[in-house]
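Before we proceed, please read the two lines closing this message. Report back on whether the structure tokens fit the sequence:
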Amino acid sequence: MLKRKIYNRMIEWKQKSNGQTALLIDGARRVGKSYIAEKFAREEYKSYIVIDFGNVSQDIIDLFTNESSDLDLFYAKLAAYYSTVLHKRQSLIIFDEVQQFPRARQLIKYLVADGRYDYLETGSLIRLKKNTENIIIPSEEEHIEMFPLDFEEFLWAMGDEATVPLIKSCFDKKMPLGQALHRKIMNDFRQYMLVGGMPQAVLAYIDGKNFEAADEAKRRILRLYRDDVSKFAAGYEDKVYAVFDGITGQLSKKEKKYQVTSLGKYARFRAYEDSFIWLNEAMVVNTCFNSTDPNIGLALSADHATMKCYMADTGLLVTHTFMDKSFTDNELYKAILFDKLDINEGMIMENVVAQMLKFNGHRLYFYSRSDSADRENHMEIDFLITEGKKISPIEVKSGNYRSHSSLDKFKRKFSGKIGTPYILYTKDVMQKDGIIHLPLYMTMFL
């Protein structure tokens, strides 16, 4: 049983909506949507029905197709088929994997208007054109995204509900935790980076702290993602595979920008643009765009042809890096556990920061500018976030970094727009040179 933060948002929806909207939970495959939907139904309603459109009978398809105009008969047949009594305003009907049968999603408009029951939809690849064409998207939907477990949820799974409130207190005061406590939390965070936040991997790991079992769970998920590409990206699946398989190689470079020319001598972004969009909309990756003119509206200057492409789950990235080898050959496990990451493997730290910022609701942007004529204009800032009316630059560093020249130049160039500059690294809280240094795990509070 995994405790998830999204559950509280579902409770808020139920209380505020009072049957006026349906709730759509969008997320990558195997992120836990079906589990949390049924848990919510079981604990918050008198009765519920789960219609799994990934494995539904022809009788139910016919019911939605031919008999939805008479809702009295529609509900009577639905209740009889699932042997469930439906109670007015006290029952929930779940459309699981609704992208498999878009007509059911279109019907939400009329079911909500009827007002008898509540409706919850779950879907993967829900935003793909293939899964929305020929239907009218109902305005009666509230849409929330579900992500892999964050670090706090991972600690909950490990039986620890005391650590994060203490971390938050130190973050608020910008006060060091102390060597012993910081070392203990970084040890837990390294486990989180390796295992990741996919529920199947977390459950496999906590049953005896078995990294190999977690790795096998992640391999199954990655194979499932590849199967989805062949099914839902028909016509350009080879390009999606190429982009997906190239992620680890691109992130292992110093600058980490995705160079499309690495996919072929004559490869151009325009030819692969749909592949990046597919992976992003499937929520398999977190795309980070270059904001060429940093200001409060980062999206206004986003260069969509210049991007970094992170895996949506860092644990999956660790496994994806060595997917063609056995678990015992995956050197990243040893490097992370024993704090021996080299500069190329720093992609893991940058990836987990991207994952945590995304969980917090940030759109991902970075700043990159090359200027061989004037080194003062040559800068690489890993992430940019908005805090109030200011832009906060973020650099991800190893514990033994020697300088932060790009951050210094960025501060000088955009001094009127700068909020709090941050360095995220493996050591304890520190304030130095006008920069707040935070341990990686404190990203959850940015």
Summary: The longest strand covers residues 302-311. The radius of gyration is 23 Å.
